[in-house]
Amino acid sequence: MRKAFIFLTIIFIGLFLASAAGEKTQDIEAKGAESKEIQGQKESQETLQFTAGGHVLGFRKGDMFIASSDHALRIEFVNSRPVSPREEGKSPDTENTSQAAKPLGKVSYRNLWEGVTLSYEKYRSGVVKSTYYIQPGGKNKVDPVDQIRLRYNVPLKVDKSGNLLASFETGQMKESRPVAWQEIRGRRVPVEASFRSLGKQEVGFRIGSYDPQHQLVIDPTLIWNTFMGSAGYDCGTAIAVDTSGNVYVTGYSGDWGTSPDPVNSHAGGTDAFAAKLDNSGARVWHTFMGGFASDNSYAIALDTGGNVYVAGESGAQWPPGDPKSEKTVNGHTGSGNLDIFAAKLDSSGTLMWNTFMGSLDSDTYPHLAVDIDGNVYVSGWSSAQWPPWTPPDTKSDKTVIGHAGGTDAFAAKLDSDGALVWNTFMGGTAADRANAIAVDTGGNIYVAGESGDWGTPVTGGEYAGGTSDAFAAKLDNNGAYQWHTFMGGAGSDLGTAIAVDTGGNIYVAGNTGDWGSPLNPHAGGQDAFVVKLDNNGAYQWHTFMGGTGSDLLRGIALNTGGNVYVAGSSRATWGTPLTAYAGGTYDAFAAQLNSSGTYQWHTFMGGTGSDLGQAIVVDTDTPPNVYVAGESNAWGSPVTGGAHAGGYDAFVAKLTETTEINIRQDTTDIPDGGSYDFGSQKINGDMDVTFTIENTADLNLTLTTPITITGTNADQFSVQQQPSSPVTSGGGSTTFDIRFSPTSLGAKTASISIANNDSDENPYDIDLTGTGKYELTITAGTGGTTDPTAAVYPYEAVTNEDITAIPDSGYRFWNWTGDASGTNNPVTVTMDSHKSVTANFSDMATKFVIINPADSTAGTATTVTVQAQCTDSSVDTLYNDDVTLVADGSATGGGLVNISSGVGTLSINDTVAETVNLSLSGGGGLDISSTQDVLFSPGAATQFVILDPADQTAGTATTVTVQAQDTNNNVDTSYDDDVTLAADGSATGGGLVDISSGVGTLSINDTVAETVNLS
């Protein structure tokens, strides 16, 4: 998983400071015996061997060494885990080399201490760079950093700058002060870091507080800075870099002495200088140019042949008799004022020619550009028309547009031998100054500066008023005016630098008050600005940089990717810099924008004095290196031989731009060399996980090849979606999907490798783990639960699992279905494949219910049904027991009802026509409150019955009742008809009896005392 990391980056500079005069300076020096001792130790242990910086590097379990033929440095990893070193990638020049001579690429010790991975990799400006990757998670117990303990084979010392010095008899090896940082969603957050002395020969690290949820990184990294100069005032004003990474700087200075000897010696006072530094910042040569007056150089450029061109101002002819004067194309005007000079040096610093340009008044602050044919273009300030010169020719003859008065901006072209081809002036009657010049591949010239109103500017680029406006102008290769435009507001606006890209777009930098609609708002005071124009001078965009103090831009450069780099100075901090503002009057700064003007990064350089950035250049490396020149009090840790000499020195600083690949899954960071666990996944199932690649640095991140999966179980993982490339700088992202599809039980391992152009994390490797599992799906039906609880369970090995069904109250276990059957409870399931088991439950009876019986006729039985019912009135078909049915009245047949499968019946009869109430008793604890009524109705009449009449005295009538009855002597109330009542003897009143509802009456009388028979 992508977790938080601290990157503690240590650079083995590999430059030795001689301990005594006359001793030979070497990269690393120690006794030869020590080298033999290290090479002879642990011979049986496997050693990875490489070369870097003129040394052999060996990596083993527990230690590493850096050695040459007669000295060696060994570093032991104290109390570390027994981790073998791993070669992470191959250096591009490793083909056809033996193991012992193999150039170093990258070697890692993964999890060397718990949560700590250490890597070593090739470093262009030294021998080797070590980086510690600190994983989070252990900080609540013991901070992983506290585990790191290194034991050296030589005495150690931490200098005032925080660098670690390893002392040998003849010199020292220096490891740069560690830096630690974090990337928190595109914002770089530095973390305080330093060496921690643990004894005479042991060291660890001390870091400040950090957020363990985010990866840590720094970019760009200050690789080296060096000072050049005397004890007086020395200023670096311009810088250039060749394709080999050599750096050329110019400026003005007092004498530097003779260490090393200059190509041409100092003439006195302030002289212009040029110097060449190699890629590591070491001085290759330097030379002075000038006479006894003041000579200042402000511009430098290179041609394809390695020649160096400088331009500046000079107060007098350079001394006669000196080799310089013999190579002067055109002499100084001798007016006592400053003239412009241009000079050409070969690749070793030897003067090839110099020439002067200017008027009898002051001509100052030149800048220059060189085209592919070696023609030189110079711009600057001039106070008057240029007079005739020697040899007999006139500058005025070659002037395209004449001087307009006051101070005018000028541009001039010299051929490759220094001869003037043409010159021209730009401006009006106010002060007009050209501060920068550039030339495109077609030979067109672009000038930037500051000016009052003049001419007819490009539409939309009119003069805005105020003290001055920044301006840009285009000339063709013959010096003919093409267009000009103004930039700025109502205050003072200065154009100080200009560059043109391959598409002909123009970028102007300077400082200004607020104006227009910028991409980034003005912060107050004087802010730095960058403006983009198209090739016709039409405005495209502008942006501001800076804080509430004064912010000045003096240099601009472009790289092949269209990014814009600027250098300048700030009086106070602003934004979120990569390196914090150090204080003092000014700090130098460098910044990058993309081609759309969007801010990418900025960084400060300097100490507590005044540090001014004057020029910037970018090389063609991938990623590019950025070089800044300026003037400074002492700061930082300059390279050997580049120590501060006092007062103000010229400085050169090299910054390395990088890409920075970060990978996360959701919100969890996964470091290079980290891992991601898919967990358990159903066999023959798929689990897709999306990962995000972020680029938090300054260059676009290129993913050079598709993601590949390797390892023991590579066939169990697959890339479902490849990431897109490039990933844009400054927080761009892309995603890729990995699928885990196990086909068998057990742990699976593989790894993915992401090839990219991040120099210290290429390839970016992530270990993948996952486990194939069988799944048991347990389901509980309505009315119960199971143990284990109903869910899906993984099984990573064949296992017998017992499952118990647990019915709820009012329910009973019924049976198992699925991959288990029957009624055994618990049931055992063998997990040798995917299984699914369901526990089924049924309701239990809670009551007896008498189902409403059918009514009947008296004497005819009716069937009564009794059910054992659940709470939802369903029949409990599992119930088998008895209950007693009670029938009241004359009914017969009540008694024990045998309940089987939840139902029982009993026959009830009653010869009496009546309603019989049915109820229950007993019931085994079930509810027996259920009752029902059964109506027994009389049957059809089968007989007339004369009810016994009351006896009576003779002469008094008595009532005789006749009923129509059924066979059970019940009155048939439905009968309506007549019957004749016959009375014998002397009785009277007999006759027809009207039967209604089964009953009729008739009165009988007899005056004779006798028994009367009725029929």
Automatic annotation (TrEMBL):
Pfam families: DUF7948 (PF25778), Flg_new_2 (PF18998), SBBP (PF06739). Residues 774-843 form the Bacterial repeat domain. Residues 84-93 have a biased composition (Basic and acidic residues). Residues 46-221 form the DUF7948 domain. Residues 78-101 are annotated as: Disordered. This is Uncharacterized protein.
